[in-house]
């Protein structure tokens, strides 16, 4: 059960099966976050529902990744799902899209303050924290665009 959840319902295992490498599996987890976020937008869910869903994804990430926390296995991608869900809380339109892209890039390149440091935290906290921080960078960018009227 934990492996299924940690791999975002198997999405994190697809690239290894197709090409023998986990490289890019985080983007598969982010894809699940995008699908969930689109479903929330389509349901016209209020921002606080998105917040609850993101918090639940963080909790699932912490729980499901714990047995696999020797390093950060590439196929464990529920953390990217959680980070993506953080990035889009209360957003729509162009700010939503920019938030997803910023969060993904912040996680991949780890050059923004705190992202790389969070990854070095022990266990499942380290696996999850860098993606959550990257998600907050995306969220800040999305809300910044919303504040200046780039809807």
Question: Could you please describe the fold and organization of this structure?
Answer:
There is one protein chain. The chain is 72% helix and 0% strand. The relative contact order is 0.17. The protein contains 8 helices and no strands. With 151 residues, the protein is mainly α. The chain has one domain. The longest helix is centred in the last third of the chain and has 25 residues, at 123-147.
The structural class is: mainly alpha
Tell me the total number of β-strands. 0
Spans of at least 5 consecutive residues whose pLDDT stays below 50 are: none
* Alpha carbon gyration radius: 14 Å
How would you spell out the order of helices and strands? HHHHHHHH
Q: Give the count of structural domains.
A: 1
Approximately how much beta-strand content do the residues carry? under 5%
Helix content: over 70%
- Alpha-carbon distance between the two ends: 40 Å
């Amino acid at each position: 059960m934990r492996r299924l959840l940690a791999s975002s319902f198997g999405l994190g295992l697809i690239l290894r099966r197709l090409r023998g490498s986990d490289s890019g599996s985080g983007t598969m987890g982010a894809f699940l976050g995008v699908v969930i976020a689109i479903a929330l937008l389509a349901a016209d869910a209020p921002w606080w529902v998105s917040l609850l869903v993101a918090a639940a994804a963080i909790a699932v990430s912490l729980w499901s990744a714990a047995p696999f926390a020797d390093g950060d296995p590439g196929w464990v991608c529920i953390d990217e799902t959680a980070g993506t869900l953080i990035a889009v809380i209360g957003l729509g339109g162009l700010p939503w899209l920019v938030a997803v892209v910023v969060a993904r890039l912040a996680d991949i390149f780890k050059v923004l303050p705190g992202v790389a440091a969070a990854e070095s935290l022990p266990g499942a906290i380290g696996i999850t924290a860098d993606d959550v921080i990257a998600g907050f960078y995306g969220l800040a960018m999305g809300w910044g665009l919303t504040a200046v009227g780039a809807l």
